[in-house]
C-alpha cells in the first residue's frame, strides 16, 4: 500500500450514472474514482459515524479497507 497523503480538497460531480470524486493531495497528486449513489451514501454514513464518535489517540496507521 502507498504512503498516506494529506488531503487538499475533494471535488464531486455527476458522471453518467455515477458520481465522480477527485481527491487532490497537498503534494499535487489527484485520484479520480467513479462511485454509485449507494457507495456515496455508505461513505457519508461512515464519515458521519467517525465525526460523531469520540476521538481516539492517533496511531498513524491507515484505516483498514472496507
Give the helices and strands, then pairings.
Elements: E1 7-15, E2 18-25, E3 30-35, H1 37-52
Antiparallel strand pairs: 1-2, 2-3
Give your account of this protein's structure:
With about 70 residues, the protein is of the alpha+beta class. Helix content is about 25%, strand content about 35%. The protein is built from one helix and three strands. Strands 1-2-3 form a three-stranded antiparallel beta sheet. The longest helix has 16 residues, at about 35-50.
Main sheet overview = 3 strands, antiparallel
Instruction: For the largest sheet, list the strands in their spatial order.
Output: 1-2-3
Annotation, overall tally of beta strands: 3
**Morphology call:** globular
Task: Give the percentage of residues in beta strands.
Answer: 25-35%
Structural class: alpha+beta
Number of helices: 1
Oligomer: single chain
Provide the low-confidence segments as ranges: none
Helix content: 10-25%
Determine Rg (CA atoms, Å).
14 Å
Give the termini distance in whole angstroms: 15 Å
Summarize the entry for a quick read.
The chain has 66 residues and is an alpha+beta fold. The protein contains one helix and three strands; from the N terminus they run E-E-E-H. Strands 1-2-3 form a three-stranded antiparallel sheet.
Provide tags for this entry.
1 helix, three-stranded antiparallel β-sheet, 66 residues, 35% strand
